[in-house]
Amino acid sequence: MRKLTYFIGATIDGYIAAPDGDFDFFMPHVTEDYLPHLIAEYAETLPTPGRAALGIPDAPNTRFDTVLMGRSTYAPGLAAGLTSPYAHLRQIVLSRSLTASPDQAVEVTNEDPLPLVRKLKQEDGLGIWLCGGADLAGQLLPEIDELIVKQYPIVAGSGIPLFRADFSPRAFKLTDSHVFEGGNLVLTYAKTSD
Q: What InterPro entries does this protein map onto (predicted)?
């Protein structure tokens, strides 16, 4: 069975973006020792234009072949004219407000996320990457098998949290960690049995 992984950048205090959705404040903290790790381990999570700029446009997908995004996660690229940000993956945008896809390579759906993910998990293929955002992650929390947090050495104070959901504690076990010179961490957690 395929696995759903929430792979996301966050501040020390657990925010994935500023209150207005901006996440550019993370960029100065992508250090020389950190970027090669992301390229080597998570190349498919880099946007297609970024992969081309880094000289790895045809890097094989080794972890994921599908990406799920909420409308707010998809919006910044769309506003910049990037209608297919992850052309090397199957792209699914879950939205109640976007009714048609601006690109034939992007599936837009207003389906209930839980049954959709359960169906996707039954299909053959690599893992499913939950790219964001907080509302979608909150809805999909029962189906998240793995959580990979790229923690940046920043305290934001407020913003968009990792999850936006009702109080419902769920246990995860730390299975891997990497510490980088600039203070960045990559923390991998696996869901424990409920």
A: DHFR-like_dom_sf (IPR024072), RibDG_C (IPR002734), Riboflavin_Biosynth_HTPR (IPR050765)
SS (H, E, C) 8-36: EEECCCCEEECCCCCCHHHHHHCCCCHHH
Q: How many domains does the chain have?
A: 1
Partnered with residue 6 across adjacent β-strands are: 130, 147
Which DSSP state fits 37?
Answer: H
Q: Is 141 exposed, middle or buried (0-12, 13-18, 19+ CB in 10 A)?
A: middle
CATH classification at residue 10: 3.40.430.10
pLDDT value, residue 194: 58
* Domain housing 178: 4-191
Write the CB contacts of 172 (distance below 8 Å, at least 6 apart in sequence): 147, 189, 190, 191, 192
pLDDT of residue 31: 80
Alpha helices in the chain (DSSP H): 34-42, 48-53, 71-79, 113-122, 134-140
Instruction: Using 50 as the pLDDT threshold, list the residues of the chain that sit under it.
Output: none
Distance (Å, whole) CA 171 – CA 190: 9
CA neighbor of 16 nearest in space, from 106, 133, 119: 133
> Among all chains, which residue has been given the structure tokens 């205090």?
13
